[in-house]
Amino acid sequence: MSIYNFDVKTIRGEEQTLAPFEGKVMLIVNTATGCGFAPQFKGLQKLHDDYKEQGFSVLGFPSSQFGNQEKGTDSEVAQTCELNFGVNFPLYSKINVNGSDAHPLFKHLTNEARGVFGSKAIKWNFTKFLVDRDGRVVKRYASTDEPARIESDIVKLLS
């Protein structure tokens, strides 16, 4: 199945697929506003702003699976992201990223780009997946990888 065919729900409750991002480079991130890594929202937004005109987008998928660090409703998450971090990149409804009820998109991402020692499981919030213009998952980044560290990989895919 193509990454563009996965059904997703926007943070505002609209059902769609990732088809609008076909031909673009994407950085797909599981997020949580209550996480110690939440300051990365600012770096993610900077990447989104700096490269969106060249065909790049950050996509945020909130999850409460790690320490219940995303406690609010989708509406509250959207408001927190906008007010506290200035986020305007696409955000989606809260999902699970691990386990039998993990969202199919994240099952695909973790199958295509495994973690340390070949692990599929996502270890924490702000795990990032870089997807090329053809919809291929090209790299996985750990929670500790700052967005600025990913910039050179994004630039390569955009050229």
Strand content: 15-25%
The CATH H-level homologous superfamily: Glutaredoxin
In CATH's first tier, which class applies? Answer: Alpha Beta
- Helicity, as a percent range: 25-40%
Biggest β-sheet: strands ordered side by side in the sheet: 4-3-5-6
Q: Can you write the helix and strand succession as a string?
A: EEEHEHHEEH
Can you tell me the residue ranges where pLDDT is under 50 for at least 5 consecutive residues? none
Strand runs, count: 6
CATH topology group:
Glutaredoxin
Radius of gyration of CA atoms, rounded to a whole number: 14 Å
Task: Summarize the biggest pleated sheet.
Answer: 4 strands, mixed
**With helices defined by DSSP (H or I, 4 residues minimum), what is the helix count?**
4
Shape: globular
Content-based structural category: alpha+beta
Distance between the termini: 26 Å
- Could you say what the CATH architecture is? 3-Layer(aba) Sandwich
Kindly report the average pLDDT value: 94
Overall number of domains = 1
Structure notes:
The chain is an alpha+beta fold. The chain has a single domain (24-158), classed as Glutaredoxin (3-Layer(aba) Sandwich). The protein has 4 helices and 6 strands; from the N terminus they run E-E-E-H-E-H-H-E-E-H. The protein has helices spanning 40-51, 74-85, 104-112, 147-158; strands at 7-9, 15-17, 25-31, 56-62, 128-131, 137-141. The chain has a 4-stranded mixed sheet, with helices on both faces. It has a two-stranded antiparallel sheet with strand order 1-2. Helix 1 links the parallel strand 3 (25-31) and strand 4. Helix 1 (40-51) packs parallel to helix 4. The protein is globular. It starts with 6 loop residues before the first strand and ends with a helix. 35% of the residues are buried.
